[in-house]
Specification:
Blueprint lengths: L3 H28 L1 H6 L9 H24 L6 H17 L4 H14 L3 H30 L8 H20 L7
Helix pairs in contact: 3-4, 4-5, 5-6, 6-7
Length: 180
């Protein structure tokens, strides 16, 4: 049986939060209008590149979450995993101290009855995998930006190789999580 009073409170809180975020945006534009007006974009289509990269990264995070949670017996739809990744991204950008992890954990506990210990293991897997991918991109970036007339930064190369190697060890040696 649904609770109409609870639904009204939830809808009211959603509207209040939307109003606060929109109001903060309006205040920001009002206060910084001169700076915003001074910006000029010569080729606005180039703005599509970071927007597409952002959406692809959120989609990949959602698919990774989908794969890890499926191994734990949680069945998310692709759109639900994408929405969870998008909410996580927005929460981490708007709220302090990686708040998105708590939001995702609460959602998965409440909607899919995923124990917090299992959720913590999915977060660890995500961070290990993210570290591995970031180290690989760092290696590629380091190698692409090093010119022939300058020495290779062995300290950065060693650090990135260490991060990639440690992440690979964690990925391949980690025990599987028993399904309940």
């Amino acid at each position: 049986m649904s609770d109409p009073a609870g639904k009204r409170v939830k809808n009211g809180l959603s509207l209040l939060l939307l109003t606060l975020v929109a109001g903060a945006g309006v205040v920001y534009f009002y206060v910084h209008w001169e700076t915003i007006r001074a910006l000029s974009v010569n080729r606005p289509l180039l703005l599509l590149i970071p927007a597409i990269c952002f959406l692809v990264s959120v989609l990949l995070r959602g698919l990774f979450t989908l794969a890890v949670l499926r191994a734990l017996g949680v069945t998310l739809s692709v759109s639900e995993s994408f929405a969870l990744a998008m909410v996580g991204t927005m929460a981490n950008n708007l709220l302090p101290v990686q708040t998105a992890a708590g939001i995702r954990g609460y959602y998965l506990k409440r909607v899919h009855d995923l124990p917090i210990a299992y959720f913590a293991s999915t977060m660890a897997a995500f961070y290990i995998f993210s570290t591995f991918i970031a180290a690989l991109f760092g290696l590629v970036g380091l190698l692409c930006t090093t010119r022939a007339d300058m020495p290779l930064r062995l300290d950065l190369l060693g650090l990135l190789l260490l991060l990639a190697g440690a992440s690979m060890v964690c990925i391949f040696v980690s025990p599987s999580i028993p399904l309940a």
